Amino acid sequence: MIDTISSRPEIFWFVLGLGMFLLELVMPGFIIFFFGLGAWITAMVCLIAHPGINLQIIIFAVTSVLLLVLLRRMIQKKFFNKKLHLSDAVEDEFTGKEALATTGFGRDKYGKVDFKGTTWKAESTSDIKEGQTVIITEKINFTLIVKPKNN
To answer: Could you please report the per-residue DSSP string of 12-23?
Structure first.
């Protein structure tokens, strides 16, 4: 096996790079990807020239770290810019939807609203009457912020 690696190092570096790309899919963090690129660059250098094993390791280490430092942030901004937080996904399920006030409440008191078959704690800057339809404007933890629906 050692003879195969020393006689065809480009195959070794190519397979190592491919393995690192696959490992990135299993362990996302967008770091291992650059070491896979470094391995492929080393494979290309080995295909064109025939550097010794020490130089191959240096090429791999230098290109991997340089690519990581120079490109990671730029690629993350380009492709992974929008971070979806769980609270944002839940917010979209509530915001702008109608609910029914089950109690009367106003500026300084909490009330209850029924939304999708569940009773929620609610507050509003306007006076809300029992049985009134309201629009959900925001969700803070387990409290819905509502406003009266303009009929």
So the answer is: HHHHHHHHHHHH
